[in-house]
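Hey, I was hoping to borrow your eyes for a little while. I've dropped the whole record in just underneath, so have a look:

——
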Amino acid sequence: MNRRRPRPPVPAWARSVWAGLRRDDRGSNVVELAILAPGFLAIIMLIVQFALWFNARQAALASAQAGAQVAREDAATNGNWQGLAQQASTDYFDSLNTRLLGSLKADAHGNPATQVYVTVQGPLGYSVFNFFHLKWTVTETAGGPVECFRPAAGGGRCG
């Protein structure tokens, strides 16, 4: 047989304090808000930062595609195709009239006989986490095969 041992008596002052704590929940909402609010704010800031980064990435990709189009058209026939492609990327980004990227660096590379590419890179212009001193960089590359007209009488060379 298991007999329970009686509990030791609880002092009266402890019973009154415990009863007061159980019944009195005033201020608990303020404490909960103080604990949860920084987390909610951090999540909102992450969402805004992702939107800024995504929009900057789209602007960089569009600029790289504009430069790649010029590079693909001019690489076979123009020796200055890299400069033209880089200028086309920069001009397109300037025409967007955005400050999502702090500065833009375009680089055209590839084999002018087969494939050419334009890489656009720049630092993110805005950050909601400036107090961490983070440097966000956006890099996008676009390219493709060189376009050239090959007449039948030309022996397969671009003409």
